[in-house]
Design goal:
233 residues; alpha+beta; Immunoglobulin-like; 2 domains; five-stranded mixed beta sheet; three-stranded antiparallel beta sheet; 4 helices; 27% helix; 24% strand; disordered N terminus
């Protein structure tokens, strides 16, 4: 198997890892992605200030080994139905800086992932009828850093009214550091077996597999350490 015949192996196997990662298009904390634009806001019904957010903590104190869980109840107090973008609510988890978090008056940075989204479709909205509520419980330790023990205050960011809740959180490693640590672990390569292959073909296939693994690992490392939209690759 010559060099030109090995290249499709590299591109195909490397692409099997690269394409799903690019499809997610998630980066570390940065500026809001294209989906979070003024045009998106204008697509929502006007009276969002009549959607109230009630925030509460599931516990008064969280140990270092526990998640920091808060519950948010969104209620439509308007006299008509209101549509909300799902990703601007916690119904599917925290996939944007939905909360303002402070400790001793200092802003706690959002360190969760920022998703680059296409223009919203009908399936991206949820509708609250007049007086209707929806409740979600989410773990904020995956999206905000709590490296120092102390009292943390949470407020839901919305067009409407939100209360604040304060709870004690014991310091723990940052979510960003944990993700980088997990990414640094190299997955084990599975064993290779052959059926009716000559020694020459076995050698060629091992080389192709090694090349594809190197190609895929390079792509994975690139996505972990580089903002994809900022580089030609």
């Amino acid at each position: 198997m010559n060099h030109s015949s090995r290249r499709p192996w590299k591109l195909w196997l490397g692409g099997a890892v690269l394409l799903p990662l690019l499809a997610a298009c998630a980066s570390e904390a940065g500026t809001p992605a294209e989906g979070d634009t003024e045009s998106t806001r204008e697509a929502l019904d006007i009276d969002l200030n009549q959607v109230t957010a009630a925030v509460s903590a599931t516990k008064t104190a969280f140990k270092a080994g526990e998640g920091a869980e808060v519950t948010v109840t969104l209620t439509n107090t308007a006299s008509h139905a209101v549509r909300l973008l799902r990703w601007q609510t916690p119904v599917d988890g925290v996939k944007a800086p939905l909360f303002e978090v402070t400790r001793d008056g200092e802003i706690v940075d959002y360190t969760g992932r920022i998703y680059k989204r296409a223009a919203p479709t009908a399936n991206d909205y949820l509708t609250l009828r007049p007086g209707e509520s929806i409740t979600s419980t989410v773990d904020l330790s995956d999206a905000y850093d709590f490296p120092t023990s102390g009292n943390y205050e949470f407020t839901f960011r919305s067009e409407g009214v939100s209360n604040s809740v304060t709870t004690y959180i014991e310091g723990r490693p940052s979510a960003r550091a944990l993700r980088k640590q997990q990414a640094a672990v190299t997955p084990a390569v599975g064993s290779v077996s052959f059926v009716s292959c000559s020694s020459t073909r076995q050698s060629q296939l091992r080389t192709a597999l090694s090349n594809a693994d190197t190609y895929a690992a390079g792509a994975f490392s690139y996505l972990q350490n580089t903002t994809p939209s900022s580089t030609p690759r």
